[in-house]
Sequence to fold (354 residues):
Amino acid sequence: MAIKFGRPIELRDAPRRQTDALASPSLDLTIRMRRNRKSEWARRLVRENVLTTDDLIWPMFVVDGHNTRTPVASMPGVDRLTVDQIVRDAERAAKLNIPCIALFPFTEPSLRDEQGSEALNPDNLVCQAVRAIKKEFPDIGVLCDVALDPFTSHGHDGLIEGGKILNDETVAVLVKQALTQAEAGCDVIAPSDMMDGRIGAIREALDDNGFGDVQIMSYAAKYASAFYGPFRDAIGSAKTLTGDKRTYQMDSANSDEALREVELDIAEGADMVMVKPGMPYLDIVRRVKDHFAMPTFVYQVSGEYAMIAGAAANGWIDGERAMMESLVGFKRAGADGILTYFAPKAAEKIKAES
Ligand SMILES: NCc1[nH]cc(CCC(=O)O)c1CC(=O)O
Ligand SMILES: [Mg+2]
Fold:
């Protein structure tokens, strides 16, 4: 039997004996796809992909202060949290069986400078949060973003000279940032800057400094995207960002290039790779997973969250169903895990239904 596009060619015209449609409305079909959808138990039986709490990484925003949660206007349901509140949400994550938390700081504008020096302060907000979480909940994974944008006055991920983002000079700073986070107790270093060569440089520095067990999740295929807008509100870099990030983040028109980026990061020592954003790049997730068979993650970014949460808040879509549909879509595309602001909500729903 000849096979094309996964089906026998002989079956492409589904066997059907002609009946007189006017005389009898019943079609003489051998194959009826709806049989397997006839009831909830039957649908469960043939379901191909399942989302579990093990698939979730919960990104959180840290801000200075005490006992305060400040809503992020463009991300309904997401707050900036002071360190003590981060620990409370870490507890919530642990109870929900969410394996890992990702931390992003809102840095006081007075602490931002051209070089992003605060990134290297061992007592910065991220380091404080890592220590506080690890002290109370040592068994939850903590992932730290490596990039300079929350700390620079210009909002770029790297050092700038004459309007140009410097690659190698930036990597030298990122290596120090990664070591600072590892010293604070971070479990997973996640470089999101898209400089060339940073994975290899960070791996070497971690190994040379006794952090051989610290994992690297590389933002390997990260696109220059309009969907990061609400995140930049959350960390306070939206207003200060000069220009765009297209000289280091990828062009959204490209797909082969993503494979080259991922291949390099794997060769340099990435333990896990990530595609970002998520929903507009499901084809990239699938190609990366099929090509490399690596632990492959996807980031459902702030703008994707805002679209669903915003439309739901207006009553335009069923927010819970849209959330679950989008998340299982990542699984279907081949993702092993998802960074999503929906993590606690999705985990609660999974828990309630199990
Ligand atoms: N290096 C910064 C960084 N790390 C994660 C995100 C975006 C996450 C989101 O939108 O949820 C960004 C934004 C950017 O590159 O401008
Ligand atoms: Mg790269």
The chain has a mean pLDDT of 95. The longest helix spans residues 168-184.
